[in-house]
Amino acid sequence: MNKKILISLRQFWVIFSREILIWWRQRFKVFTTITQPFIWTIFFGLGLGRVINTEEIAQVLNYSGKVSYLFFIYPGMIATTVIFIAFGIGNSFVVEKESGFIKQILLTPTPILIILLGKIIAAGCIGALQGLIVNILGYFYFKDLSFTLITFPILIILGILTSSLSVLLSLFFRYHESYNALLFYIIIPTILLSGAYFPIELTPLWMIKLAQFNPFYYGIEMVKKTFFVSLSLEKDFSNLKEIILTSGPGILENILIVLFFTVVFIALASVIIKKKSFA
């Protein structure tokens, strides 16, 4: 193998493993990573499902049967937990800028792209780990675990998309307190506009058009379709599964769109870092 490639892989591994170790040593973060999915499942899946009009969801999906709200939103819950965790890398990036660590690491021979990939992919994997826990919890409702291994690589792709956007946005902030406001002004609105918790067709036309430019719309569709394609369902739900799988962009198309957004975010971040001073 080319010597330069080996050096790049070692540099990547150092950055990647550092991010994983930092996460692992922060016991509270590990605890929240494990327990937060339970909260999402109980309050959103079971609690909110009692007040949502599932008849409208069934009507939009052209489904004549009864729709379980937990059945509809479960893939969205998995994707949402991945997004919230992976988005946290941006806050860490701002903190490291404040402490001067980013400036120091940029002075090393390690290429900027390797630094970005190490941090972004590590955050994506940590986010996917939480999504995996939500996946496993799904066994108690769906009585099936066949979807777990199939959806995990898709969750990593979604996590990398989120962390790449997070790092890109963090470059425009000097203080992490300001960056945290993005959670309410950008991430939550884009999640609500992604179809995770209700069909996007229930929204006004201008919101439907806007969703087409939302990377998380394709990310959550990617998770949703992969989740259902590997799920064994009873006859009553088999038609609903078919409707979900055949509506909108397919799995491969969603993956390609998500990868496109990811490459654009990483490329922009790389260019901005080269031009930006971290003094």
Q: Ranges with pLDDT <50 over ≥5 residues?
A: none
Average pLDDT works out at 79
Structural class estimated from helices and strands: mainly alpha
Overall helicity: over 70%
Q: Please report the number of helical segments.
A: 15
* Rg (CA only): 20 Å
SSE pattern: HHHHHHHHHHHHHHH
Structure explained in plain terms:
The protein is mostly helical and 279 residues long. Helix 4 packs across helix 13. It is globular and about 60 Å long. The longest helix is centred in the middle third of the chain and has 26 residues. The two termini are 37 Å apart. The protein contains 15 helices and no strands. The mean pLDDT is 79.
Question: What are the salient characteristics of this protein?
Answer:
single chain; 279 residues; mainly alpha; 15 helices; 0% strand
Write the layout of secondary structure elements.
Blueprint: H1 3-25, H2 27-47, H3 54-60, H4 69-86, H5 88-99, H6 101-106, H7 112-137, H8 139-142, H9 146-170, H10 176-180, H11 182-192, H12 205-211, H13 215-229, H14 235-246, H15 251-275
Helix pairs in contact: 1-7, 2-4, 2-7, 4-7, 4-9, 4-13, 5-9, 7-9, 7-15, 9-13, 9-15, 13-15
